[in-house]
Structures are given as C-alpha cells and as structure tokens.
Specification:
Length: 174
C-alpha cells in the first residue's frame, strides 16, 4: 500500500436514512479515503477569534490517516488555528446529480517532525507536480513563497453526500 494513502483507523459507519434514498447503502470508508487522496482542491473552514467563520480553498494531501495542508504563519487561517484548532475541510463536485461530496471535521495540529515533513513534501510533488516542491527547515516547509507551517487534520467525523441515483448520506465516526 502506498504510504501516502494509508487509511485512517476503521470508523463506525452509518447511513442517515433521513437524507438518503430508500435503496441507498452506507459507503465503505475505503471509498471516502480514496477520494480524499485523489481530490485536488479542498475548502478549509476555520474560526476567527471573534467567532466568524473563515473559508479558503487550498490543496492538501492525505497521508497516514490525516489530511495535510500548509499555510504561512501570518496568514489568517494560521492565526485562526493558533486560537482554535477546530476545522472543517470539504471537497467534492459542483455537479448536483453525480459524485460524492465529503466533509471532514477535526482539529488541526502542526506537524514539526522533519522526517515526517520531508515525506509530506514528497507527497505534494507526487500529487501536484514540481511547482509544489518544498524544502524542510526548522520544522516547516520552505518554498518560493517563504515559510509555511504544515497542519495535519485527523478526522473525527466525516460526512459523505452521494449525489445521483441513489443519493445518500454516510457518516463515519472515529
């Protein structure tokens, strides 16, 4: 198995019948994990110090059971995370009748281990190409845009919204 797509621990899986077609079944976690690994764009929601939400698109890699993203230490999302690590990451399709939208709830934790950061830097290049090459120095990514803190979000709860026939809402709890 590829080390960058190691699945998270096996979650409790349920289908919410209130939001699902009668013929829908709960999706296996492996389907969601594969989609998290393959998704190119995510929307990150953090909480500002005054309680207002902050949402921004970004790229992320799925590795060792967590989504990983990076941001400059002075950017709004990094400042928000310093006060409140709770986040939501979403990915999916803007098409109404097909695909699977995923909502990942968890807490962002800074990754400082340089061996782990080097593996993540390789994962960024592998997924997004050489324009996303980072060096690792002083517990952070360093690239053309400066220093970036790397965060890991291990899912607490993930919601999957299957669109089309049948539509359904699967919940995975960790």
């Amino acid at each position: 198995m590829d080390p960058h797509t190691t699945p998270a621990p096996t979650p409790r899986t349920s289908l919410d019948a209130r939001y699902s077609d009668p013929k829908a079944t709960a999706l296996p976690w492996s389907d969601a994990a594969d989609r998290l690994a393959a998704a190119e764009v995510f929307w990150l929601t953090t909480v500002r110090p005054d309680g207002r939400p902050h949402v921004t698109p970004l790229i992320a890699v799925w590795s060792e059971g967590a989504l990983h993203f990076c941001t400059g230490p002075d950017e709004r999302k990094a400042r928000n995370l310093a006060e409140n690590p709770s986040v939501v990451l979403t990915t999916g399709s803007s098409v109404l009748d097909e695909g699977l939208d995923l909502v990942v709830e968890g807490a962002a934790a800074a990754v400082r281990d340089e061996d782990r950061l080097r593996a993540l830097a390789e994962a960024y290049v592998e997924k997004y190409g050489p324009d996303w090459r980072f060096d690792v120095r002083d517990g952070a990514f360093v690239g053309d845009g400066g220093t970036a803190v790397v965060f890991a979000v291990a899912p607490r709860t993930v919601f999957g919204f299957a669109k089309g026939d049948p539509f359904g809402q699967t919940r995975w709890r960790f």
